[in-house]
Each structure stands twice: as structure tokens, then as C-alpha cells.
Amino acid sequence: MQKVSDWTIHRLSSYHRLLSEFANEGKEYISSHELAQRAGATPAQVRRDLSCFGTFGTKGKGYLVADLISKITSILGIDRDWRVALVGAGRLGSALFSYKEFRKRNFHIVAVFDSDRHKVGKHWADVQIDHPDDMKSIVRQRKVDIGVIAVPADTAQSVANAMVDAGIKAILNFAHRKLFVPDGVTLRNVNMAMELETLSYVMTKNRTRR
Amino acid sequence: MQKVSDWTIHRLSSYHRLLSEFANEGKEYISSHELAQRAGATPAQVRRDLSCFGTFGTKGKGYLVADLISKITSILGIDRDWRVALVGAGRLGSALFSYKEFRKRNFHIVAVFDSDRHKVGKHWADVQIDHPDDMKSIVRQRKVDIGVIAVPADTAQSVANAMVDAGIKAILNFAHRKLFVPDGVTLRNVNMAMELETLSYVMTKNRTRR
């Protein structure tokens, strides 16, 4: 299989959502053109992204919506449950915990950690907040797959180390600090300012054009 | 100027961050290869993205880091301040308000709205929480450029309508609801589950490979 960029995976993720919309609208087939238009990409880009994973679509008819949904589901690995540990029970952690889209996409937060002794022992829904000192045993017991870092930048690296030490192989980092993880551990950084920059780009462009 | 996809803009945004890292590391020049490697893209992709905006780089030497930073800054429109109104003073709103990266990238939250009468009148740092009924005059007074929606899905469309009515031309939506805005208004939807799907993709791929 050829090397697939994160950008392709992001787009697949976005195609998946849009295809569900098309399915809800009762569409059976869809062209790369229609999908591209809704995704803010080009038809060539859509075809190139999908071609990384095999041959899809029927000449002249386009893609069978249900079929493409199920194939992307399986490519993204969201046809199974993923068990997530969240570290940081602050504002961001709390927002992430109640973010319904995670659960809808089969990501379940099964453990929450915070080093603040006032928070440890409290419950968020049915999950108890634990101290990071207990991470290793809890991660093992609850079969955690993914760690989410929602702590301030200055403690993010030590949290990442603890996650790696606990056997977590995939980490999503919301802190603004470059983190180092050993080979074999996958790290992704989230930057919410990126979306605002798409907006400032569009507005700057429109202003220049006038 | 050719049509530029949102994905290209996202990558520019990411190149911008990485270039700042390279600058901090004392690098003066950088190749498309080095930039691509850190960005999780291909060198061809990097060159294609930049070529949308003119000619960059010197043959055999690569890109001058400082120069490329300043050009991308200007393309993204982040060489000026942007004034943001946040609607929804709940968990997510609170996390966004304290998200330092926004301010660092010149996005300033200058107004916060919530329809909960218990929240109206309270202050977050130096910003008072106001009722959405006052959106029109406040948006005008504070010269708001961008609206951020951080309310539950079922009220998101009415918030978007109020923003449009108040003259906001760019909206960032965190609610999971397809929103409709008139022509001339730019809408972007944020999906944080997308990043988790990059992780599940990698882990699924690794598992299949073993």
C-alpha cells in the first residue's frame, strides 16, 4: 500500500460525514464532482484520495453511497470501538468529555486523569477522575487504546511520557508544545486556530479583490 | 488567482507553524523535502500548495525561512488583528475563550454571548457575557469580524441567523448540525473527531500489517 498522508485521512473522514448526509437525503449514487463540491476539494483530489485504497465507483454512475460509506468506515477503523483515556480535567477536558461526536464515531472516554487532588475521586457521568499515578494499572484494566492530552503546555511532555509508559500507542495532543514520543507511538497535534485561519484567508482574499 | 482548496489553506497554516519551529532552531533555508517531512505531506504537495500563491524558493537552496513565514502570514491574513464574537458560554465556549493559541495568532475574542440569564453580566477576564438579543449593536460597536458558534446543535442555526443579521461575514461552527448561511457569508465547521480518526486509521493499518 502506498504512503497515505494525514491530509488524505482527514479528507476521508470528511467524505465519510458528507456521504452520510447524502445517504440521509436519499441519494443512492454520487459523482466525485458532487462529493468534491460539498467537501471543498476538487474531483481529481477525491479520486486520488480514494485510489489510495483500491478501485471505487462505476463508470458513468459514480460511487454507490452505502458502499463507499462502509469502505471508508473500515479504512478509518471506526467499525470498532476505541477506548480513550483523557488526561486533564480542566475546561478543555470537560468540553472534550461532553463532546458527543466522539461517542457517535465510536471513541469512548473510559478514563479521566487529573493531578489536582480536589478533582480526583469526583465523577464525570459514570467515569471517576483518577490520579495520573494510577495511569499504568487503569490503562491496562480498561484496555485503553488512545490517550488525549488536555493539560497545560508545561506538563504535556510528562503526561505523554506517562502514557507511553502505560503502553498507550496513540496520542492526541491539544497542548501547544512540541512533544516527543518513541518510535511505534503515533502522535497527532490538534490546532483549533487553523480553522480560524481559513476564515481570515477568505476574508483577506475578498478584501483584496474588491 | 486559481481556486485554492480549504485543504491547501490548512496546510499553509501548518507550514507556518513548522517554519516558526525551523526558525527557532536557527535554520535559514529549508527544502520542500524537509518541510514536507515535518508536515506529514509530500514534497510535491508542498510545492503545489505554495505555487498557488506565486514563486517561492531558490534553486538548490530551498526556501528562505523568514521570507516564507512572512509571505504565508500575509496570505493567511494573520498580519492583522481579527475580532471574534463567541456565542455559547458553556464548557466548550469556556475552553475556547482560554485557548491561548487564538490570541497568539491574532484572533481576539472581544464579545461573548449566552442566552442563560444566570451567565449574562458575568465577566470572563475583561469580557462581559451579554445576551444574544444585544448581538447586533455589540457586534457593530466592537467591530466583530468572525463569529464562533459553541452552542448545542438545536440552537446553532438560530445563532448563525443572528450572526448574519448582525453583519458577521465569517462563522466558525463547533455544533454538529449542518448550517445554512446566505451567499457572501463564509462558514466553516470544526470536527475534533477527525483527529481521532487519523489515529484509529494508523492503528488499524498497523494491526492489519502484523
Automatic annotation (TrEMBL), chains A, B:
Keyword NAD in annotation: yes
InterPro entries: CoA-bd, NAD(P)-bd_dom_sf, Rex_actinobacterial-type, Rex_DNA-bd_C_dom, Tscrpt_rep_Rex, WH-like_DNA-bd_sf, WH_DNA-bd_sf
UniProt cross-references to HAMAP family, sorted A to Z: Rex (MF_01131)
Described function: Modulates transcription in response to changes in cellular NADH/NAD(+) redox state.
Origin superkingdom: Bacteria
Gene name of the encoded protein: rex
UniProt family annotation: Belongs to the transcriptional regulatory Rex family.
Subcellular location field: Cytoplasm
Protein name per UniProt: Redox-sensing transcriptional repressor Rex
Keywords from the named record: Cytoplasm, DNA-binding, NAD, Repressor, Transcription, Transcription regulation
Recorded GO MF terms: DNA binding; DNA-binding transcription factor activity
Matches recorded under PANTHER family: REDOX-SENSING TRANSCRIPTIONAL REPRESSOR REX, REDOX-SENSING TRANSCRIPTIONAL REPRESSOR REX 1
Entry GO terms, CC: cytoplasm
DNA-binding region positions on the chain: 14-53
Keyword field contains Transcription: yes
UniProt binding sites for NAD(+): 88-93
Pfam families associated with the record: CoA_binding, Put_DNA-bind_N
UniProt-listed GO biological process terms: negative regulation of DNA-templated transcription; response to redox state
Subunit structure comment from the entry: Homodimer.
Residue intervals of the CoA-binding domain: 77-178
